[in-house]
């Protein structure tokens, strides 16, 4: 009985993965990241940074499967959200993670927009939120090779 309660407590305490969209990608992390950057730039968004988590881990002699985060945005979409709640600037610009799982599979993941701003004073009906979600979905699909 104690095991059941401990399992239930762990499930309640664990963060839900339902807030994230994740899809398998074709090729390597570098291949998927190149497709992602091309899709983002092709849509007229600005790439602000690329964070190479795998290289960071290697720089301190730690192992981590290849993992890269692309940070990008468009002020036409982000500004109305920050006008609604300046704290949205902690969540923006948008991000997509491309990573390897250690078993040879590459994945593309992002947080769903409605969850990203859920704790902020941002109206769920704000038109740009749907555009952000559509952009994230399209970019992730392009990165995956679909």
From TrEMBL:
It comes from the Bacteria. Residues 1-18 form the signal peptide. Residues 51-110 form the DUF302 domain. Keywords: Signal. The keyword S-adenosyl-L-methionine does not apply. InterPro entries: DUF302, TT1751-like_sf. Pfam families: DUF302. CDD domains: DUF302. This is DUF302 domain-containing protein. The lineage of its organism: Bacteria, Pseudomonadati, Pseudomonadota, Alphaproteobacteria, Rhodobacterales.
